[in-house]
Design a protein that fits this description.
Layout: E1 7-10, H1 27-38, E2 48-50, H2 52-58, E3 62-67, H3 79-93, H4 103-107, H5 109-115, E4 119-123, H6 127-138, E5 142-147, H7 153-160, E6 165-168, H8 173-187, E7 190-191, H9 202-222, E8 229-233, H10 238-251, E9 258-264, H11 269-276, H12 302-311, E10 314-318, H13 320-331, H14 348-358, H15 363-368, E11 376-381, H16 388-395
Parallel strand pairs: 3-11, 4-5, 4-7, 5-6, 8-9, 8-11, 9-10
Antiparallel strand pairs: 1-10, 2-3
Helix pairs in contact: 1-9, 3-6, 3-9, 6-7, 9-10, 10-12, 13-14
The structure holds pyridoxal-5'-phosphate.
Length: about 400
């Protein structure tokens, strides 16, 4: 099998006893998370786009895409996690419940005096760091952001523009996380990392809860229509874990939609962990030079994996050209469908759906995923064109052409 092949591992744990608990991500908590997000003046609900012409063309009932490029003017969903975790950390410091803490509370002179100025530190491929820098800036704190080697200069400048001390290191993503952690300990900074490991789970749990706003909004926008399939892209698996847990809590494990996790071949740590199925996490090391920069993570988030192991159905590892396909499909709508500007990591799931439904050589996957004429598909376009130069190379110039292999 060639490295670029599309690979699938299927799990079936529906109805099993003692599945990993998802109550933290249920509707009640999601409501509280959303209330906190709503307290920011920049908050607005992002569009849920119904691509009905595309669905007709692909032979399914509907395709919904949640367009996170509109999130807080930051071109990606990630700020949902950074802001909710920083909010929860500050609430705890104040001895208050997050229910009674809002943006207004946190910028009030009394609170600022009580807490003083803190420094939040993180490692990021771009989107998470921008969310942390934005939140620190809006709440009157400082931020330090480390990026892996090869990070796009545009992403670095976007973070610096928010007042963060940001730099591109010569480390890969996972080593940049270790550097941020070392510096947090050395300088007394607060580490706000969007992945969990043994001994560091409190802040990442808040971050994952923060992501539920996306799913919570989508459910309201669907007005009772239930998706049959949800596709989620994974880097460390925090986003997909949080959203999967939300839907598992909402519908119950037997009735929830079919959940499929999608990763690049070059950074498929969740897929490899699922494939091994030996109770251990499996890492990918090295540069992980996929175009899906947000998914270029080699070490699964512990909480994320625990949720996905017990509540997701399919794990996919796929080549880069499929994400490029998703970007082009979303930027060239059919009929009256709305255009969506989606970056490499954002378009990964639509690219996968497109490839499976269009490529006759993948009929076995279509069948395995139960993608029939009744399928109502929900995808999250988690970012817009966060690297504009690369976006144009792919969408305008046709870099990473489709490969029917
Ligand atoms: C745009 C985008 N989508 C998806 C993800 C994946 O999230 P996670 O690393 O939690 O799996 C990221 C992570 O940075 C991202 O930036």
């Amino acid at each position: 099998m060639r490295e670029e092949d599309i690979k699938l591992v299927h799990y079936d744990k529906r109805g099993e006893k003692n599945l990993y608990p998802v109550a933290h991500f249920g509707k009640e908590n999601a409501f509280k998370v959303n209330a906190f997000h709503r307290s920011f003046p920049e908050y607005s609900v992002t569009p849920l786009v119904s691509l009905s012409s595309l669905a007709r063309d692909f032979g399914v009932a509907n395709i919904f895409v949640k367009d996170e490029s509109y999130r807080f003017g930051l071109n990606a969903f990630k700020v949902l996690g950074g802001s909710f975790s920083i909010g929860s950390y500050l609430a705890e410091k104040l001895g208050m419940d997050i229910d009674s803490v809002s943006y207004e509370t946190l910028i009030s002179p009394e609170v600022q005096k009580k807490i003083g100025q803190l420094t939040f530190v993180t490692a990021t491929d771009g989107n998470h760091g921008r969310g942390v820098a934005w939140t620190a800036n809006r709440l009157g704190h400082k931020s330090v952001v480390y990026m892996p080697k090869g990070s796009a200069p545009e992403r670095l400048e976007n973070i610096r523009a928010l007042g963060a001390e940001a730099s591109i290191t010569d480390l890969n993503y996972d080593d940049a996380v270790r550097l941020a952690n070392q510096h947090a300990e050395k300088y007394g900074w607060v580490m706000v990392q969007d992945t969990a490991w043994e001994g560091y789970e409190k802040i990442p749990l808040w971050i994952m809860m923060g992501y539920t706003t996306m799913a919570y909004e989508a459910v309201q926008q669907l007005k009772g229509e239930k998706p049959t399939h949800i596709f989620l892209q994974a880097g460390v698996g925090a986003l997909s874990g949080g959203v999967t847990a939300f839907f598992a809590a909402l519908f119950g494990d037997k009735d929830r939609p079919i959940i499929t996790i999608v990763e690049p071949n070059k950074a498929d740590c969740i897929y490899r962990t699922a494939e091994a199925d030996d109770g251990k996490l499996h890492f990918v090391t090295g540069d992980m030079d996929t175009i899906m920069a947000g998914l270029a993570c080699g070490e699964p988030c512990t909480i994320g994996w625990n949720i996905l192991r017990d509540h997701a159905d399919n794990f996919i590892s796929m080549p880069d050209y499929i994400a490029a396909e998703g970007m082009r499909v979303l930027s060239n709508p059919l009929g009256a469908d709305q255009r969506i500007i989606s970056g490499e990591s954002g378009a990964a799931t639509v690219g996968f759906v497109s490839e499976v439904l269009r490529n006759p050589q993948l009929a076995h996957l279509k069948k395995a995923l139960k993608l029939d004429a009744d399928a109502k598909i929900l995808c999250f376009s988690t970012e817009g064109d966060t690297d504009k130069e690369n976006y144009r190379k792919i969408v305008w110039d046709g870099l990473y052409p489709r490969n029917e292999g």
